[in-house]
Amino acid sequence: MLAALPLWMVKLIRWPRYLDLSLRNDSGIRKQDTVRVFSAVASSSIGEPIAFNFVRANWQRLKDYVGSVSTLNSILKVVTRRLNQAHEYEELKRFVSESCSDLGRPVLQVLERTAANVQWMEQNYQTIVKWLLAVDKSAPKVTDA
To answer: Where is the ERAP1-like C-terminal domain positioned along the sequence (predicted)?
Structure first.
């Protein structure tokens, strides 16, 4: 059944399960590889919101399973590295204030990086889009032979 679906759709179905399995002792995924699992899922534009939403929905379970503040900070860092929209920053701030403000300086650095990403997008996104559109219009058109 999954073979007939586009790859991005298969990932939408499988990645939450993969994240869930990384938080179970009986899954075959070693506890020390949990950060790698979250990083792998969050490394694409499709997987990043899946990973971030999973972390928010399963924060207490994640804390109980990994136990280490350092590992929690690493997971939070990898699942938020691509955030660059104002609404994503607001969601992150809310999550940090409600659930993980006790993680110390590293979580503040995550907030700072996300704020910088948002600011960069606000300052540069439209300029880049305009430039790309202009380059596209001036590029020679390929015609069918």
So the answer is: 17-114
